[in-house]
Amino acid sequence: MTPVLDIRYLSVSYRTPDGDVRAVSHVNLALRPGEVVGLCGESGSGKSTLAYGACRLLRPPAVITGGRVLYSGKRTGTVTPVDILRVPQRDLRAIRWQDIAIVFQSAMNALNPVLRVRDQILDVIAAHLRLPRAEAHEKAAKLLDLVGIPRDRLRSYPHELSGGMRQRVMIAMALATDPEVVIMDEPTTALDVVVQRDILAQIVELKDRLGFSVLFITHDMSLLLELADRIAVMYAGQLLEVGSSAAIKDAPAHPYTQGLLRSFPSLRGARRDLAGIPGSPPDLRDPAPGCPFIPRCGYAVAACSEVDMSLAAVPGGTDPLHVTACPIVSPAGIQAVTNAVVPEAAHGVPQEGARS
Amino acid sequence: MTAEPISTAPVTSAAAHRGSLALEAIGLSKDFRLGQGKTLHAVRDVSLGLYKGAVVALVGESGSGKSTVARMLAGQERPTAGLITLDGQPVSVAGLGEFRRYKSEVQYVFQDPFSSLNPVHSVGYHLSRPVKLHQGHGVNVRQQVIALLEQVRLTPAAQFVTKYPHELSGGQRQRVSFARALAAQPKVLLADEPVSMLDVSIRLEMLNLLDDLRKRLSLALLYITHDIASARYFADEVLVMYAGQVVERGPAEEVTQQPAHPYTQLLIASAPDPDNLGSVLKSGNSAARAGGTASGPAATGCPFSTRCPLADDKCRAENPALHQLTAVRAAACWRLSEAAPALAGGAA
Which residue among A163, A227, A268 places its CB closest to the CB of B281? Predict the structure, then answer.
């Protein structure tokens, strides 16, 4: 199936007086129709820069230094994909929001506090749909229906809504133009778990009903395992591993992914040993050659500083599209790595028995 | 709207076996006047004990009153009703001197390491002030500051003394916050969401550090969080708060594995479950949304009755008190025999 959004070798730098910060380097990521792809990484890993860069939403000092972003949707050329990075400004405006919509981080602040919800939704409709007035009002009401907010809330100001409701309004606005791709940047980070689950279930339900694809950006791996079809793990501006949720969970290939999986406590099942990932991410102004994870990696060998960080298939896996940039991985390598992890976890949070 | 009297069941804290009682709150309540004759009952009749070398977790969603409890314990907010005792003595923080003495025993760690440090002051300044203030004259301030930095594993310590907050990562800043709290050599540490602003990969390191400090310094630790999964790993006792009340308390492992109160059950069912790859989320099943979030807490009766699938007329009329389930567990629910049949059998 042709990907609806195909990011190829995208690189983004931030120009600073002290030199370029390579926030995103040579990232390849495809989003297929109806798919939820999770983009996972810690703060500063470049996940938001990647998403905004792909939509040409970045302002200087950010510069896109290379790559292509091919969009092939039902409205714009299914035969020849459009390169978003090269389309004229006018066409870009048509594609953005109408075909590719974004739900921005922190819904708390994304809505204009002095405008009623209705006026903000009508703004979107006016800018992108050009409906007659009555129809536009009806559309705004229908959008709130879609996300399960009572219609009388159209007259509310953002401060009269709870955090979860504001986030729903943001989602409703993103869906106003029936987009094919919805990029969600940490849409539930500031919300309570109960509200979070509620909204995620709603997103998935709408996705199934309306058939859009989702690029879901978060730092919460545990959430992605449950939600996403595929997961891309980003670190220091590069993708370290991409695979199906099952492959990432059961056979994580990159030591960073393995570290992430050992970083969050689980509620269900036996208590696992947890270790976290000691150290902090590298300085992107002056990246060392090879894998950026070397200083925090317990398995780094000499070859790691020469690897070109292109993604290669993980041998022996069940998912043929499971790829990683780690050079020391082989089925035996994974085995060695997973086994070696156990004694290291001894300094982790107290283990079973130590606490009862 | 009236606050109904809620009696507290005589449960032994699951943290009690760790050490002696340091800080105790008995029947703590806090009302905020909202104007127009309205009152917000932010905290209602909360009792808890913090024991030396033990971790008690206060779990709840935003607005549940967990931070208000911590602020009252820290002496920053005066309780409307109830008593706080430190080492068995009632706490009074009326005067500045008393407040300062109390602060040297009970310290607070803030949630956001990005705003809790002053950007124009160095790490050394942040730490030397509490050392001078609380450790008195005659101590070698610089030596103490270095020792504090080593205690929170910011090494080489001498280098960090001269750094400014913007030169530090989020994790390093939070370590400075810990060190600042420890500078007063407290018995009790109140940690209000100490890791929620940090990246997942360093959260665990921070919790491990806190756990290590707890052990080495015999700290009585209150861990406030909305992440009940981390409470399972980190805490001895968990108290679940909803709308200002403790709705369930007990040993961390038992509460998370066999929750009794419908709210605790909802909280646990809502937490991301990485082991559940083919979950209801993927199929977009709206059954996952039972429990609803549209309604706020009820004004009368059990505050959870507006969202509770088991709520009946009694729940809507009367607020249940904490009901003892076992020696160390209690839950405030009228319908425990349906909510947790296995546990309610042992109830009095």
Answer: A227
Report ipTM (2 d.p.).
0.77
Residue ranges covered by each domain of chain A: 5-228, 254-347
pTM beyond 0.90, yes or no: no
DSSP A69-99: EEE--SSS-SSS-EETTTS-HHHHHHHBTTT
Measured CA to CA in angstroms, residue A285 lies from A10, A15, A309, B178 at distances of 18, 10, 18, 30
* Cβ–Cβ gap A194/B62 under 8 Å: no
Q: Exposed, middle or buried, B81 (CB in 10 Å: 0-12/13-18/19+)?
A: middle
SS3 (DSSP) at B275: coil
% of residues, chain B, pLDDT over 90: 36
What would the pLDDT profile of A175-205 be if each residue is shown by its tens digit?
A: 888 888 999 988 887 778 888 888 888 888 8
CATH 3.30.420.40 is right for the domain spanning A5-228: no
Q: How many CB pairs under 8 A join A and B?
A: 156
A132 to chain B, closest Cα gap in Å: 32
| Interface-testing mutation among A47, A267, A319, with chain B (most B C-beta atoms within 10 A) | A267
The Cα–Cα gap between A105 and A59 comes to 17
Which stretches of chain B drop beneath a pLDDT of 70?
1-10, 276-295, 345-348
pLDDT on residue B287: 42
